Amino acid sequence: MTQTTPEMLQISPEYYAAKLPAGQPAVGTMPNERLPEGAKLPLMLQELEIPRGTGTFTLKNRASVPPMCMYSARDGFPAPFHIAHHGQFALHGMGSIVVEATAVLPEGRISPEDVGIWKDEHIAAHAGLVQTIKAIGPGVYFGIQIAHAGRKASTPTPWLPGTDDAKPYVEEKDGGWPKGVVGPSAIPAAEGHIVPHELSIDEIRSIEKAFVDGAARAYRAGYDFVEIHSAHGYLISSFNSPLSNKRKDEYGGSFENRTRLLRNIVKGIREQFPDKGLWVRINGTDAVEYTREDSWTIESTKQIAPLLEEAGVDVLDISSGGTVTYNRFDLVPGYQLPLSGAIKDLGLKRMKISVVGVLQDGTEHEPTKIGLLAEQSLQNGKADIVSVGRGSLKSPNWVELAACNMVGVPTVGAVQYEYAVASLKRFQFDVSEKS
Ligand SMILES: Cc1cc2nc3c(=O)[nH]c(=O)nc-3n(C[C@H](O)[C@H](O)[C@H](O)COP(=O)(O)O)c2cc1C
């Protein structure tokens, strides 16, 4: 398996830094001299100082790319695809980028094609990715989501032919590990899915260690921060939720016991890495309030948020759902804003709040609306950081388009592009004259 290394790419942030004029503004920013007269700098384009362990980091803007599985790795190694994929967001100035759910153990992958960080051999490939992305997008805050899929592991890559509900898991002959699927309790994620092996206390402790080791490898590779995946029904979130956790020991029952896995992982990482970036993605709700079952709700998130802040988490990234298939959402633009807003309302002093979920109004045929809902969410105090997933897959230059919509000019573009794009101004675009 070929690994992508910085040496292969012959590229480094220092190379660009040496070539560029001093004081070159970073992509994705809006220096005052660029802002049209009378226009006010939108919050989204303002810098934001966020905690980073014992220190701080200044985000160049508040637009973020959330983790998104691409199912394009072999044996966990990030590949040139991942460089191109994250490169497009970095090149166009997104302020922070989080690499997809990356497995801390091979059996913690969602699919056989997931990215991984379970062995030291992965580090060089991640380092190649990190160095390239930082060179391409100066000032970008580049992190990685570390994850264990738990009872939702060994599932098929959604875009591979033959993937359908009739075959919800990948068998051993196709590279899956149905016998290695684990969870807090022997309850499958959905009908027809694998009944997970109920983890013993020793096995849970070794998973806690795997998360800390995975974080250590990520920091060694140069990532600015790791985001612990504690959402969407994957392992940690399945411990948090009483829907999937029916244990009677110290990891089940009370809120304190169910959240022990998450809290131990945070503690383990912080003890070893007091000065590194540490984010947590958490469910704002399991979204089954309508059933009246005992579940993870916004009250649970309100309870855990101050504990995570105290434990040294820098950013809490609010999402929801995925614990059970019968969750229900009112899928309107910004549908998770009430959840992030409830956490913002707690008035926490240190930890910042990120929100995600269709932060775009209008339809996909009305791109002029890009950025307006996200900006409004920041203005209304619903979040500190706005994360845009599918929107940035569709328009990797999302933040540039948002700037155009908000103040009439794009954010600073890549030096390699800007002078060329500027030459287009000479042309009058009027197709009607030619027809
Ligand atoms: C292709 C795809 C892959 C995703 N993979 C992950 C993942 O690895 N980890 C995660 O926490 N969320 C994942 N998500 C959820 C997104 O991070 C995001 O929360 C969700 O898409 C809603 O935001 P959006 O409406 O801006 O797309 C994924 C979403 C998509 C579309």
Automatic annotation (TrEMBL):
NADP as UniProt keyword: yes
GO molecular function, one term: NADPH dehydrogenase activity
Occurrences of domain NADH:flavin oxidoreductase/NADH oxidase N-terminal (ranges): 55-402
Gene3D superfamilies: Aldolase class I
Cofactor list: FMN
Protein name: NADH:flavin oxidoreductase/NADH oxidase N-terminal domain-containing protein
Protein species of origin: Malassezia brasiliensis
Origin superkingdom: Eukaryota
UniProt keyword annotation of Transferase present: no
Pfam families: Oxidored_FMN (PF00724)
Keywords: Flavoprotein, FMN, NADP, Oxidoreductase
